[in-house]
Specification:
401 residues; alpha/beta; Arc Repressor Mutant, subunit A; Nucleotidyltransferase, domain 5; 3 domains; five-stranded mixed beta sheet; 15 helices
């Protein structure tokens, strides 16, 4: 009994020590990611860890090929300062975006840069077809890594929740989309690989990608709209993605907004691309170019303009409704279209906000998202990246103030 108790205490102590070491390594990696490069002295000052502890951590991260040395900075008192930065080959991460009209797989490096991209389109997604595409695309991406396949750290899936509820909107038979009810895409894909597989709502994943890979790192609180086949989004609070109690926080597509003739509709019925697609079909025009990767929408100027007017009005109302609950710094708008379309939609939304009754409200600044159509797949790739190597952004806020 005594021996077992002693062993248990020893095991608990070792476990705690390992947990602390891993947490400290994640802290160091997170700070280096945030600042680009840092010396041991700078990390010691930022973290409050001892210089010896930081030295041990940095040496281990360098041995693990997660950090690389820069050129020594000379001209100061004492030994030259050696900045350390992330090694782009330190890890590779897959992101699989499953959409209503298209499926994409990206592979990113440790810096978040896309090093492999594969895409397919369809009328609507079916489980077997999606899994077959994913397997083929992953194999192609793996083959491009050569002897670095041991650096693959995981795969994240970005998928709309309850896909089976959208059969009518995507033009599928209910029985076909019902296959998703009992199909666990995460479990099915995980059986083929030894690394972990994660899953998250697609619009939430896109918001997470904007947070960590986008151009708005100075923002700590923002609401994010992503316009795909259906409108959705996410929320960032205090520098971290907020997913809520059930993981479905910021179901922005469901927000009530004014419709025609004094009615109330959901944002999804005004700002979703399927509304534009439906109008094109009604006019006898081919809507397939809506789902092309460049998102330029050639020859759709009139229809796009009309859709954007309605979408901007809905986005304006949704923005102000969100601002009455949380005093957001900004609203970011992104989606499955070109930067040209995005810029115009942002401008139109800003104008629509100016027409609303803003008494008692400080409206957030309306700005463009920065990742475009690939945001959801990048969000998927960020799931294993952050789970394994980084800590929650809220723990770093004091460093960026």
């Amino acid at each position: 009994m005594g021996a077992n108790s002693s062993f248990s205490k020893t095991l608990h102590r070792v476990s705690n020590q390992m947990g602390v070491r891993i947490s400290n390594e994640k802290l160091v990696l997170s700070l280096v990611r945030l600042h680009g490069s840092l010396s041991k002295a700078e990390i010691t000052r930022m973290t409050g860890l001892s210089a010896q502890t930081v030295s041990v951590i940095m040496r281990q991260l360098e041995r693990d090929q997660l950090l690389v040395r820069g050129e020594p900075i000379r001209g100061r008192v004492g030994q030259p300062s050696v900045p350390m930065s992330l090694n782009e080959d330190g890890g590779y991460f897959f992101g699989l975006k499953i959409g209503r009209r298209s499926c994409e797989l990206v592979m990113t490096n440790f810096l978040g840069a896309v090093v492999a991209f594969h895409r397919t389109t369809y009328s609507f997604p079916l489980p077997n077809d999606v899994e077959k595409f994913a397997k083929t695309a992953i194999e192609k991406a793996i083959s491009s890594l050569g002897d670095k396949t041991d650096r693959i750290a995981g795969l994240g899936i970005a998928i709309p929740f309850q896909l089976w509820n959208w059969a009518d909107e995507v033009g599928a038979k209910a029985a076909e989309m019902d296959r998703w009810r009992e199909y666990d895409i995460r479990e099915s894909i995980s059986k083929n690989y030894h690394w972990p597989v994660y899953i998250q709502n697609d619009a939430t994943a896109a918001c997470g990608a904007e947070l960590v890979f986008g151009k708005h790192k100075h923002l700590k609180d923002f609401v994010y709209f992503f316009i795909g086949t259906f409108a959705g989004g996410g929320i960032v609070l205090n520098g971290s993605l907020y997913t809520g109690r059930t993981g479905n926080a910021a179901a922005l597509g469901s927000m009530p907004v004014p419709g025609a003739n004094g009615s109330t509709v959901q944002l999804i019925d005004q700002a979703s691309l399927f509304m534009l697609e439906r109008e094109l079909v009604a006019q006898g025009k081919d809507p397939s170019q809506l789902w092309l990767s460049d998102g330029e929408w050639a020859d759709l100027e009139t229809e796009a303009e009309q859709w954007m007017q309605v979408a901007a009005r809905g986005l304006a109302h949704a923005t102000i409704a969100a601002a009455t609950i949380i005093d957001f710094q900004a609203v970011l708008i992104d989606g499955c279209f070109s930067p040209t379309i995005r810029t115009k939609l942002v401008e139109m939304t800003g104008l629509e906000i100016g027409h609303l009754d803003l008494q008692g409200i400080v409206p957030p600044q309306v700005e463009e998202g920065s990742l475009g159509p690939v945001a959801r797949a990048l969000g998927g790739a960020s799931l294993p990246l952050f789970d394994r190597y980084y800590i929650d952004q809220t723990m770093l806020n004091y460093e960026s103030e």
